[in-house]
């Protein structure tokens, strides 16, 4: 018997100490203790604890090795998590087999959530595997099913938004309130109990005289052998209180008092007598109340012994609804409120105390209302409907409108709209409110500064990011953008490779930036490889498609370039830059194919799609004069001279020091027979660029024609 007691003490000490080290973030100590526990008392629960310690240290391979073969549902889920973080094709295949079942035949998209290891979290993990392996439709279905089971699973909705799936937040997240979401959440597996759920056979023979080492917690056992358990289900007709009873309903009986904690000494005896008297009061209260109440109907056991006060006599003073059967003498007992009663009470309170400020009312959004509002914002941004996303952020409560997450979303929306000054303002405010927020802010903010040519601010941002979080992928992206602005692509690529290596999850953004740097070096093969790797991670990365189109256009593969530009436009149809480059590819293809007669009828017909793309780009970005200039050149080729002249004259007024505009205006005026305007325009162009041989030759030719024709 002594040997059994010593074994139980050793197992309990090692398990408690390892869990304590994990809670204290001393992972090496937790790993050491969990290894000793697993060697002495091997069981699924000890394997789970040891794997958790290794996973917290970042050693996914070691954690997976310990869990193999996974026998329990908790271990199968944790094993799948380790394999997904390893990320190799074989690991992803094994992780999917663990989530689908031993025979790998379970269709989790059709089955109930309860059969999946990890519940909704397991469905989300399987959806990530499907997304990484190119099964987008199946991934979307699993993401939706995970959200239906757990409406608070924000990462699943965010993944749907990044996939560009057209869904309304109310349709995916549902229209239920916080109470309904809480009920669904309670049906999910409780991972905090996973380490202590599995008991070894030795613990069945533990002596009854053992005392707990500390006060009972959610993972420790109660003195009477019961444990704190989150109920596996909740009846809608029961109490709407979300805090479960400290004792399970299956074993709790208010008529039978629980055994008091075994303690020693006079203070302990007095505590036991007070506990016994308390239980007697409970029995008397139930006998006098006239209604048999279950423990699940009580939010707090101390409420049973509350004495009436002057305030509690008012029906709505403390948000309680009194029942006429609840009073016997001076004793008051709380009665659980139904949904209709809660709704009626809320209406009465609102009618008595209307909000003086509408903004203050929005500060009290329900949790699910807030999640749905944020979900609709990221959904709009995922479909690159940037202005709609910006408008929705203005409707958020002030405390959320000015948080780092929402400000970074607004900054990205302005970045996608090419409004870099506004994007800079939003990102700067985001870092001001939350200086340590790196991912999703610094990499995009550095790109904004790159476009604005703010070299000093970009250098300061890169240095600060390295100081705050030196192992962040976004910090290395900022450093890469900094050296890119300084025309040092080799150094930029070195930092971008570090960004790729330090990324916690596959990240397409540093691959895209690396592709741009290879383009600057005219290393087209490496650029194509980087862009394709970015597309392998994120098939909706339109910037990588745009980069591939640019490489193919430089290689004079115009048909393939046009295909990639069109694919990018399908993803982001409101991007003016994509329409402009598609027009350039169409125009270049026409110029390359028309070797004999550039102004034949077939050539003019082929230029019409290019003209349409330039017009679209000009309409989407009216402040950018480049699409308008290319549009004017196409109009000249199509012999639509008056329209081209009006376009060039407006550009001349907008850009008075742009020599190329005067040169094209001179050509148009010459074809229309206005030699004076042509001579004046080419002369101004030569004054702006006196060393340009093209302008000198054009001036000499025009002067010769004027002299030959005798035009003054």
UniProtKB/TrEMBL annotation:
<dbReference type="Pfam" id="PF07719">
    <property type="entry name" value="TPR_2"/>
</dbReference>
<dbReference type="GO" id="GO:0031145">
    <property type="term" value="P:anaphase-promoting complex-dependent catabolic process"/>
</dbReference>
<dbReference type="GO" id="GO:0005680">
    <property type="term" value="C:anaphase-promoting complex"/>
</dbReference>
<feature type="region of interest" description="Disordered">
    <location>
        <begin position="193"/>
        <end position="230"/>
    </location>
</feature>
<dbReference type="GO" id="GO:0005737">
    <property type="term" value="C:cytoplasm"/>
</dbReference>
<dbReference type="Pfam" id="PF13414">
    <property type="entry name" value="TPR_11"/>
</dbReference>
<dbReference type="GO" id="GO:0016567">
    <property type="term" value="P:protein ubiquitination"/>
</dbReference>
<keyword id="KW-0802">TPR repeat</keyword>
<keyword id="KW-0677">Repeat</keyword>
<feature type="repeat" description="TPR">
    <location>
        <begin position="120"/>
        <end position="153"/>
    </location>
</feature>
<feature type="repeat" description="TPR">
    <location>
        <begin position="542"/>
        <end position="575"/>
    </location>
</feature>
<dbReference type="InterPro" id="IPR011990">
    <property type="entry name" value="TPR-like_helical_dom_sf"/>
</dbReference>
<dbReference type="InterPro" id="IPR013105">
    <property type="entry name" value="TPR_2"/>
</dbReference>
<comment type="similarity">
    <text>Belongs to the APC3/CDC27 family.</text>
</comment>
<dbReference type="Pfam" id="PF12895">
    <property type="entry name" value="ANAPC3"/>
</dbReference>
<dbReference type="GO" id="GO:0051301">
    <property type="term" value="P:cell division"/>
</dbReference>
<feature type="repeat" description="TPR">
    <location>
        <begin position="659"/>
        <end position="692"/>
    </location>
</feature>
<protein>
    <submittedName>
        <fullName>TPR repeat-containing protein</fullName>
    </submittedName>
</protein>
<dbReference type="GO" id="GO:0007091">
    <property type="term" value="P:metaphase/anaphase transition of mitotic cell cycle"/>
</dbReference>
<dbReference type="InterPro" id="IPR019734">
    <property type="entry name" value="TPR_rpt"/>
</dbReference>
<feature type="repeat" description="TPR">
    <location>
        <begin position="508"/>
        <end position="541"/>
    </location>
</feature>
């Amino acid at each position: 018997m002594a040997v059994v007691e010593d074994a139980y003490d050793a197992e309990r000490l090692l398990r408690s100490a390892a869990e304590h080290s994990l809670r204290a973030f001393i992972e090496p100590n937790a790993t050491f203790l969990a290894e000793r526990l697993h060697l002495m008392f091997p069981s699924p629960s000890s394997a789970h604890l040891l794997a958790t310690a290794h996973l917290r240290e970042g050693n996914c391979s070691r954690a997976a090795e310990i869990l193999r073969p996974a026998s329990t549902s908790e271990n199968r889920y944790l094993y799948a998590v380790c394999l997904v973080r390893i990320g190799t094709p074989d690991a992803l295949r094994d992780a999917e087999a663990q989530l689908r079942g031993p025979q790998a035949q379970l269709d989790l998209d059709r089955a109930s959530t309860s059969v999946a290891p990890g519940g909704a979290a397991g469905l989300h993990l399987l959806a990530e595997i499907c997304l990484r392996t190119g099964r987008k439709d199946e991934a979307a279905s699993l993401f939706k099913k995970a959200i239906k089971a757990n409406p608070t699973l924000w990462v699943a909705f965010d993944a749907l938004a990044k996939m560009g799936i057209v869904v309304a937040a109310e349709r995916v997240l549902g229209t239920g309130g916080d109470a309904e979401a809480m009920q669904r959440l309670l049906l999910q597996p409780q991972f905090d109990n996973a380490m202590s759920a599995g008991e070894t056979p030795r613990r069945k023979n533990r002596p009854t005289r053992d005392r707990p080492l500390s006060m009972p917690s959610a993972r420790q056992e109660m003195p009477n052998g019961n444990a704190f358990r989150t109920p596996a289900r909740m009846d809608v007709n029961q109490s709407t209180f979300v805090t479960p009873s400290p004792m399970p309903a299956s074993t709790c009986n208010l008529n039978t008092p629980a055994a008091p904690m075994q303690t020693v000494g006079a203070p302990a005896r007095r505590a036991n007598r007070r506990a016994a008297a308390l239980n007697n009061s409970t029995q008397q209260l139930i006998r006098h109340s006239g209604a048999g109440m279950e423990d699940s109907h009580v939010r707090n056991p101390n409420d049973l012994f509350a004495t009436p006060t002057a305030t509690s006599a008012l029906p709505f003073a403390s948000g309680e609804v009194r029942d006429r059967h609840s009073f016997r003498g001076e004793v008051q007992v709380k009665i659980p409120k139904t949904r209709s009663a809660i709704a009626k009470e809320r209406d009465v309170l609102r009618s008595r105390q209307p909000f003086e400020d509408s903004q203050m009312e929005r500060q009290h959004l329900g949790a699910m209302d807030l999640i749905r509002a944020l979900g609709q914002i990221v959904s709009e941004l995922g479909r690159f409907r940037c202005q709609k996303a910006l408008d929705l952020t203005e409707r958020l409560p002030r405390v959320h409108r000015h948080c780092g997450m929402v400000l970074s979303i607004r900054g990205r929306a302005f970045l996608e709209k090419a409004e870099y000054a506004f994007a800079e303002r939003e990102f700067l405010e985001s870092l001001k409110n939350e200086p340590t927020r790196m991912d999703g802010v610094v990499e995009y903010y550095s790109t904004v500064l790159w476009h604005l040519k703010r070299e000093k601010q970009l250098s300061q941002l890169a240095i600060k990011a390295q100081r705050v979080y030196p192992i962040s992928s976004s910090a290395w992206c900022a450093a890469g953008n900094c050296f890119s602005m300084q025309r040092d692509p080799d150094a930029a690529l070195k930092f971008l490779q570090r960004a790729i290596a330090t990324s916690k999850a596959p990240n397409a953004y540093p691959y895209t930036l690396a592709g741009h740097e290879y383009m600057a070096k005219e290393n087209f093969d490496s650029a194509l490889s980087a862009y394709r790797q970015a597309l392998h991670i994120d098939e909706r990365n339109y910037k990588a498609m745009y980069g591939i189109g640019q490489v193919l256009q430089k290689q004079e593969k115009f048909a393939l370039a046009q295909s990639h530009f069109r694919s990018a436009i399908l993803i982001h149809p409101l991007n003016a830059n994509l329409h402009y480059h598609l027009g350039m590819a169409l125009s270049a293809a026409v110029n390359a194919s028309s070797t004999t007669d550039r102004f034949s009828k077939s050539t003019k017909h082929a230029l019409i799609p290019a003209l349409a793309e330039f017009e679209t780009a000009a309409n989407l970005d009216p402040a950018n004069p480049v699409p308008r200039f290319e549009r004017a050149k196409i109009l000249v080729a199509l012999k639509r001279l008056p329209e081209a002249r009006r376009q060039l004259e407006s550009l001349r007024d907008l850009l008075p020091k742009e020599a190329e505009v005067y040169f094209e205006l001179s050509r148009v005026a010459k074809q229309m027979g206005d030699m004076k305007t042509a001579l004046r325009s080419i002369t101004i162009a030569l004054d702006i660029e006196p060393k340009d041989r093209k302008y000198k030759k054009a001036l000499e030719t025009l002067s010769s024609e004027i002299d030959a024709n005798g035009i003054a």
